[in-house]
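sry for the spam today, last one i promise. struct tokens for design, 189 residues
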């Protein structure tokens, strides 16, 4: 899922996107009221690692930051976990069977969060960005990208509210997993 400017889109495993309809559910979401307080203008081509390093320098590693990057990308590689059925497999298992989609020479938006290392498990530590093409017809979890030119907007988040499920499935699942950190990294990289 990705959402900004008041509209949420479901990202599907075939790389397509469609507006979320009323009543549709998601197992996990991180949202905030995005009030950008910083902007970075990028007029030169920049790789994912250089872009994230720039955003790291502009944000604080002990706070959450919401990030939005609008621009023209030479390339964006995405993937999205397929819809799962009961009994639901662990995320690491579900994430193994993911098709990648490659967008080249594409205009669009990356949106997501930088999460502090100490919050791994509540969120996904580090950067977690989803891509939506400008025509809103396709996108996915952003694995890699190269931005040709664009604009970054950043909003610091220091007010965290967590809502946990109360379903019998959630309450009855053993989440005492020492390898959780590795599994999240493997699934969400
Ligand atoms: Zn994702």
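last one done:
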């Amino acid at each position: 899922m990705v959402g900004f400017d008041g509209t949420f889109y479901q990202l599907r495993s075939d790389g397509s996107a469609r507006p979320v309809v009323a009543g549709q559910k998601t197992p996990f979401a991180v949202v905030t009221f995005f009030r950008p307080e910083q902007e970075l203008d990028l007029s030169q081509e920049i790789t994912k690692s250089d872009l994230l390093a720039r955003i790291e320098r502009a944000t604080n590693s002990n706070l959450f930051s919401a990030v939005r990057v609008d621009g023209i990308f030479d390339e964006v590689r995405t993937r999205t976990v397929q819809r799962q059925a009961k009994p639901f497999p662990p995320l690491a298992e579900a994430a193994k069977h993911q098709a990648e989609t490659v967008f080249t020479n594409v205009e669009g938006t990356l949106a997501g969060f930088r999460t502090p290392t100490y919050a791994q498990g509540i969120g996904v530590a580090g950067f977690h960005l989803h891509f939506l093409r400008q025509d809103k017809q396709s996108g996915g979890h952003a694995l890699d990208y190269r931005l040709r030119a664009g604009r970054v907007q950043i909003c610091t988040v220091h007010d965290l509210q967590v809502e946990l499920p109360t379903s019998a499935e959630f309450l009855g699942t053993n989440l005492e997993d020492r390898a959780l950190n590795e599994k999240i990294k493997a699934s969400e990289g």
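The helical segments are 48-58, 91-94, 168-171, 180-188. ok im logging off now
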